[in-house]
Amino acid sequence: MQIGKSASTTGLYLKKQVVSLLVFILLIGYSAVAQDKIGFASNQFYKVISFGEKIDFDDIDPTITWTISNSKNNIYTTLRGNEINNYVFQQPGEYEINFQETKKHDEACHHPQFAERFKVKVEPVRMSFDFSKITFSEKIARGRNYSDLIITVPATITTKDNSNTKLPAPGMSVAGLGVSFTVEPVEKEIVIGNKTQLLKYKVSGIVNQETYLMFDFHDFNNQAQTYNLPQVIK
């Protein structure tokens, strides 16, 4: 009889673990879609990035020729195929990117998922979060209504030629099943001085069911860097 109870308990535990894993996978998909929407929020630019970054255009046919130009900084570059994935946008500004295919008329043409001419904006500030040092003022538990939970995370901020001194604090959002959280930065403005800043976010709301939590911290370009809470909220 005891063996039967033990087997039943083990089966229930395994089912809960499978469900939790599926929830986690769904949250990853949700976060990826949300980040994609954020990245393409502007109709004017294909993407907004920071100086010193690259853009991954996926696998590109070697017959494609790219031209990257920025007239203000006197930049004009020609690339072939996947070479564009290794191109570093060093200087801030607006870049125009064109591509042409050189396939023969009897060959099939498979155009990439973007226009033959588009723009990329490169911002003069770069930001990265150190999630290894993230802290929570209180432990998050299911069914508890929070009003002043504080999440603190260090961020490294680099500017090009000290072009910025003050910037609006970037936002943060929380994803999870049964999660009803509102988030606001404690400091509304960041003074660019020391490269490392301690960013604080005030979280209010409740988690209504067992779930994983994913925290999307946005940079100054509104691109998300995600922290996955390792434990399940029970």
Number of DSSP helical runs: 1
Rg, Å, rounded: 23 Å
- Tell me, what's the shape? elongated
Side by side, the strands of the main sheet go 1-5-4-2-3
Mean pLDDT: 82
Total strands:
15
- Please estimate the helix content: 10-25%
Low-confidence stretches: 30-42
Which structural class do you get from the secondary structure elements? alpha+beta
Task: Give the N-terminus to C-terminus distance in angstroms.
Answer: 29 Å
Sheet-strand content, in percent, reads 35-45%
The biggest beta sheet is recorded as: 5 strands, mixed
H-E string:
HEEEEEEEEEEEEEEE
Name a few traits of the molecule.
single chain; 234 residues; 16% helix; elongated
Task: Give a written overview of the molecule.
The two termini are 29 Å apart. The protein has one helix spanning 2-39; strands at 47-50, 64-70, 75-80, 93-101, 117-123, 125-129, 135-136, 146-159, 166-168, 172-175, 179-185, 189-191, 196-207, 214-218, 224-228. The chain has a 5-stranded mixed beta sheet with strand order 1-5-4-2-3, with no helix packed on it. Strands 6, 7, 8, 11 and 13 form a 5-stranded antiparallel beta sheet that branches. The chain contains 1 helix and 15 strands. The chain has 234 residues and is an alpha+beta fold. A hairpin with a 5-residue loop joins strand 14 (214-218) and strand 15 (224-228). The longest helix has 38 residues, at 2-39.
